[in-house]
Amino acid sequence: xxxxxxxxxxxxxxxxxxxxxxxxAQMYENxxxxxxxxxxxxxECYSDIESVKGYLKKWQEFYNQNELYWGVFLKENDDLLxxxxxxxxxxxxxxxxxxxxxGSKFRGKGYATEAVKAVLKFGFFQEEYSNITTFCARSNIxxxxxxxxxxxxxxxxxxxxxxxxxxxxxxxxxxxxxxxFVE
Length: 183
Fold this sequence. Notes:
The chain is 28% helix and 34% strand. Helix 1 packs across helix 3 (49-63). With 183 residues, it is α+β, with helices and mostly antiparallel strands.
């Protein structure tokens, strides 16, 4: 498998790029301090911008190791909408794992579907994954809809897999084969 690292991507309305430390204010305001985002995640809201700066500093190191993590920005005004992460789940079998989160004020507009689709294309054709998997909390209906729109197939329930604001939750496990991906 190739490991070319995070590359700039462009969709109809968005551009995706490596996050920089100078993105700290938008990352804090639009995503990491948003309780509507963290309610489904295994992390709590960030309480200050300094911790976000530390988070972004660590990512600069990860980028040097060819990790795949994009900030998703709106072309029209450079707003940071969300993030998409792609990593190996099983490199020997060419299986990747994708996750994403978008600020609540940007939901319901198709941005997540658009950006995740661009990263899937990159994962299948640049990183050469044969299968990309993910999971989401059972209570996260919006994320389930994104995955269904992208053609992911529901595979299993991972019982009590994650802790969200709703307690220990079952997660729904999905996968998408390269042969099923529709550009």
